[in-house]
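FAQ: What does a multi-protein file look like?

Like this. Sequence, then tokens, then the next protein.
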Amino acid sequence: MEAMAKQKDAEKEGLSEMLGVRVSADDLARLDALAERLPIGTRHAIARFALRIGLDAIERDPGVLLGGAVKGRKAPGR
């Protein structure tokens, strides 16, 4: 019964798609620690927020995926 209620809540929030992601033990521990500290919900809710924040950052500057490479910077001349 509880699973059905959670599914209906997710549908109300527009969460109709499923994504399975493997994470490291450290990442999971960080999510669990945040979930204990923050009253916003479960580690899954925090992961969704983190995904949205991260996607926004990547859309603004795709270079963040390359470890902070600076756009337009050229290698020094030889």
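And here is the next protein:
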Amino acid sequence: MTFEERVERFEKYYNDPEQHYKIFSELGFSYVDDGCDGFCPNCEQKDSCETYAEIGWELFEDKDSD
């Protein structure tokens, strides 16, 4: 898929709420259907999240804040 095709599909899916999920499934983005906004430091689910350790957010967090 060319860049232009990807942009066209993104616009199409973005403008149709029924097709938003295709932004992630067809265009190569990641998607987690649990309310994840991608900003781990403030997340209440990070202690049980399988992806948290892979991302490495703990390197950016303040260790003294606990």
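Q: Is there any per-entry metadata?
A: Some entries carry free-text notes. For the entry above: The chain has a mean pLDDT of 74.
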